[in-house]
């Protein structure tokens, strides 16, 4: 049950973030739920491998490369999920930052 609640909260966070950023286009809540699912799977399986492979670069940039990695994974998600579009790399970076903040705020209300 907790997994389903987290999934819906992530979907709501994606809708809010897409509403706040004009470079992010979302066709509806179903697309937001699919985006949350895809982003969760990508973050669970692909991101750890890429984080390990790019660890030296992340250390050399004092962690800033992790923003680049997050943006690239968001752009991958946009390619995979119909109804979710990102207009460019900088919008993907902004989406990553705003989504993190939105998820954090919504998680406060979940408790």
Automatic annotation (TrEMBL):
InterPro entries: Phage_holin_4_2 (IPR007165)
Pfam families in alphabetical order: Phage_holin_4_2
Superkingdom of the source species: Bacteria
Coiled-coil residue windows: none
The keyword Transport is assigned to this record: no
Keywords: Membrane, Transmembrane, Transmembrane helix
UniProt keyword annotation of Membrane present: yes
Transmembrane region(s): 7-25, 31-50, 57-76, 88-109
Protein name: Phage holin family protein
Organism: Trichlorobacter lovleyi (strain ATCC BAA-1151 / DSM 17278 / SZ) (Geobacter lovleyi)
